[in-house]
Known about the structure:
Layout: H1 5-32, E1 47-53, H2 57-68, E2 76-83, H3 89-99, E3 103-108, H4 119-128, E4 133-138, E5 141-143, H5 148-153, E6 162-164, E7 167-169, H6 175-196, E8 208-211, H7 212-217, H8 233-239, E9 245-247, E10 255-257, H9 263-274, H10 282-308, H11 311-335, H12 345-359
Parallel strand pairs: 1-2, 1-4, 2-3, 6-9, 7-10
Antiparallel strand pairs: 4-8, 5-10, 6-8
Amino acid sequence: MTPDWPLILFYSFCTVTLIQLFYYLFFFSRIAFYKHKAKAVSQTHPVSVVVCARDEAANLTKNLPGVLIQKYNTTHEVILVNDNSLDESKYILEAFQKKFRQLHIVELTQEAKHIPGKKFPLSIGIKTAKYETLLMTDADCVPASEYWIDKMQQGYNEQTEIVLGYGAYNKKKGLLNKLIRWEAFHSALQYLSYAQAGVPYMGVGRNLSYKRGVFFRHKGFSAHNHLPSGDDDLFINTAATKKNTEIVIDKDAFTLSEPPKTWSQWVRQKARHYSTGKYYKAGHKFLLGLYSLTQFLFYPLLAAALLFFNWELVLAVLVLKLLTQGLVLYKSTEKLDEKDLFPLFILLDIWMFFYYMIFSLSVFKKPRNRWK
């Protein structure tokens, strides 16, 4: 019997669509319709903010004040690890320290052997911290409000050891800015919603909090010290569980950073980040891989089904998918303050087909050993 290829195409298209709808309804809707649970008793704790910098004089001048002027009534400190900087960072930090007593500077003057990337300076910062609750961000990030520390620490309860936040990019004109912000939003939609579903798999170092206890219990970054990246996502992939992880998506708890200015800068950045994905737990790789595969196959199968099968049935399936996707994305962009991206969601969703082609090879490339 000759296979009915048009029917097989249509069934394949429907299968891919159903899988995509599953992700939107089971995972992503948890962010779209997220409601913060008010605590019966609110309690604050001392916090150690840890920032690592390497030749970041300009960013420190611009962004560090936003970390230092936080309105947080409980004791807190800011630890700045200056990692072998060759610019004027040392003198800028010394000037800040004279004005802000909570700023503690750790000067590193030697490179760590066989530990590439940011892991060694970050480990030193964590070991230097006085307090159990840690809050991490980068030198090129600034808190979105003066209540960043307060809002992020509100994510903790008795069982919580890890709190995931959102690290957004500043809104700029141009196509590249929208593509970068869409990818960051799309990534956050995944890791935040997975955490809400009890499957936390990563966080971003631009806005991440955890307890010193969980860091030392997992021996820091020792399991992946040989990799230049992964101080955020691989550590969370190892340490996060259904019970010990919470999220905070209050807009006052966001951090903001400047996006890459050129395509080549963005490609290098994403290649470095995606090089760690192959080290995730098997279950996480399956969930992420299945979603990416079906998103990649959706539009080629749509085009083929429209050409070779009943176009009216194909369009009916497409409309169902777009309506569901549109509702979830509208509410999610509202939650993560990315509403200007929503009118372009169909075009940006099509762009992801090309995005996966561009960055898929990053998994097999050896990342650079330096973090700056």
